[in-house]
Amino acid sequence: MAVALECRNLFFSHGNTPVLKGISLAMKSSTFTAILGRNGSGKTTLLHCLNGIRKANSGTVHIKGTNIQTLSRKQVAQHISLVIQENPEVFPFTVLDVVVMGRAPFLGATQVPGTRDYKLAKQALETLDVAHLAEVNFNRISGGERQMALLACALVQTSDIMLLDEPTNHLDFKNQYLLLNKIKQLCRQSNTAVVAAMHDPNMAMLFADEVILLKKGVIFGTGPVRKVMTKANMDQLYETDTTALPFVRDGHFFIPTDVIETIG
Ligand SMILES: Nc1ncnc2c1ncn2[C@@H]1O[C@H](COP(=O)(O)OP(=O)(O)OP(=O)(O)O)[C@@H](O)[C@H]1O
Fold this sequence. Notes:
By secondary structure, this protein is an alpha/beta fold. The protein has helices at about 45-50, 75-80, 95-100, 115-125, 145-155, 175-190, 200-205, 225-230, 230-240, 255-264, and strands at about 5-15, 15-30, 30-35, 60-65, 65, 80-85, 160-165, 195-200, 210-215, 220-225, 240-245, 250-255. It comes from Desulfocicer vacuolatum DSM 3385. GO terms for molecular function: ATP binding; ATP hydrolysis activity.
């Protein structure tokens, strides 16, 4: 599979605090890559550096072989869609109007979205089972509904690379599975490289192809989920003893062992 997004030796500090300490990665097209790591390990910062909205102190990011520094923000947005963790109440628009904003990277400076753009926006809402929200005010929908709308916005961007920061945040049980399944299908059908920061290793085991284990700004494991998500690696990543139960397709379902003992 072709490399869609690559970074080499990325270093990033918030003030004097080093957050990313020499990250080198290659993320492939048609591949769902999950980034796992404890709170504060640097997942969001990494996604922001990969998208170029945060500039690394040193190191490089290449989109399909082109250095991100040589691209305008609009050119980057034609390749990468980013769904951030927070979804603030800032849009006094309908959900459909928010979703169609995902077409902005493909419109001229004074061009307004056209029939095709609105058609794509409606299709994206249908794909995520939230077409009924199209005419509702974005500020009057729930956190989970907002998350689905912003994911629809990323879908209409039809980018080669999708960066998702905790995409299942706020989503109910059914929608978590629906969304991750759609993302997996998208990878397969449209050659998209998906890179998602995730908190649930079991969801990553179910849906992701590859995994990046990030601990305190350093990568200590990367590769196919079933190869890398071993009990030993999960213990080390989450700094707890885990129990690994047999799970689908020769995978494992991880639970902190002390929790099993307590509730047992
Ligand atoms: N704007 C900021 N200013 C200063 N430090 C920050 C800022 N944003 C994040 N940090 C620090 O950088 C580190 C990495 O944060 P980051 O948000 O990338 O982690 P994360 O793995 O995404 O965490 P979480 O899983 O909790 O969302 C943390 O120690 C955090 O406190």
